[in-house]
Amino acid sequence: EAEVAQSPRYKITEKSQAVAFWCDPISGHATLYWYRQILGQGPELLVQFQDESVVDDSQLPKDRFSAERLKGVDSTLKIQPAELGDSAMYLCASSSRTGANTGELFFGEGSRLTVL
Amino acid sequence: GQNIDQPTEMTATEGAIVQINCTYQTSGFNGLFWYQQHAGEAPTFLSYNVLDGLEEKGRFSSFLSRSKGYSYLLLKELQMKDSASYLCAVRDRGNDYKLSFGAGTTVTVRA
């Protein structure tokens, strides 16, 4: 069964350091999402790609966060410098718009970030 | 954007039924999803409603009323493994497949 791959699964870093997350969506899925989920809250959309183009990054803190999907396949999310409040689970998801599917999102296992 | 409200916590007994309500406000409704999320894991898709009415899938059912901005997820014959967070999510027509999530309802199933 096809899955969304994410790495690393866990990351511990000190504040002011740089951190990067990687995501490989399900093959053929044109839409890729990065969500941030703080413990006890629902996922919050950071950035949404359609192929290699950004569709929505209105909630991305652009002074420290950046995201790219250069070839319209895998994607990286970077934080520099990391702050204590960035501690959260970073979830990548993908979806397909072909056929009669619902457009449901398929999530990766997530990358849990702890900033000390 | 959307305002999505759901209860924070619910507790029920094994074998019982629990109903999780979700209310939302959106400028351009284009579908409502329910996801299940076990602690420390990623959300997994449970159900999808875009038209009014009830969608049944095994022990889980989901209902939608677009005029009331209301949905519920019904979990029947509860099992211990159903202890998880249940997330209500609304898709906005104005933003290509943008899915906004509620804070989630933590369901605890007791023996």
Short précis:
The complex is a heterodimer of chains A (116) and B (111). Chain A is mostly beta strands and 116 residues long. Chain A contains no helices and eleven strands.
Task: Tell me the number of strands of chain A.
Answer: 11
The total of helices of chain B stands at 0
The helix fraction of chain A, in percent, is under 10%
Low-confidence stretches of chain B: none
SSE order of chain A, one letter for each helix or strand: EEEEEEEEEEE
N-end to C-end Cα span of chain B: 40 Å
Class computed from helices, strands and strand pairing of chain A:
mainly beta
Largest sheet of chain B: 6 strands, mixed
Number of strands of chain B: 11
Number of contiguous helices of chain A: 0
What is the secondary structure topology, with strand pairs?
The complex is a heterodimer of chains A (116) and B (111).
Chain A: E1 5-7, E2 10-13, E3 19-24, E4 31-37, E5 44-50, E6 53-56, E7 65-68, E8 75-79, E9 88-95, E10 106-107, E11 111-115
Chain B: E1 3-5, E2 9-13, E3 18-25, E4 29-37, E5 44-49, E6 53-57, E7 60-65, E8 70-75, E9 84-92, E10 98-101, E11 105-110
Parallel strand pairs in B: 2-11
Antiparallel strand pairs in B: 1-3, 3-8, 4-5, 4-9, 6-7, 7-8, 9-10, 9-11
